[in-house]
Amino acid sequence: MNEIIVVIDSLAPSFCYYNSKKNSNYEILEFKKFSKYVDIVVENGYNLTICHGAILPCEYEEKIMNLKTLTRIVPNSLFDRYYNNSNVVLSLSVDEIFEVDKKLVSYDLQRCVILRYSSANISQISNSVFQLLRVTKRICLFCEDSFLENKDELNMYKSELEKISHVLNNEKQIGKLTEINVITDPWFCETSQYCLAGNESITIMFNSKAYICPAFFYDDANNYINLDDIQYINELQILCSEEKQFACLECKNIQCKRCKFISKKKTEELNIPPYELCAQSMLEYNISQLLK
Question: What is the pLDDT of residues 185-204, one digit of tens each?
Answer without folding.
Answer: 877 766 666 788 888 899 99
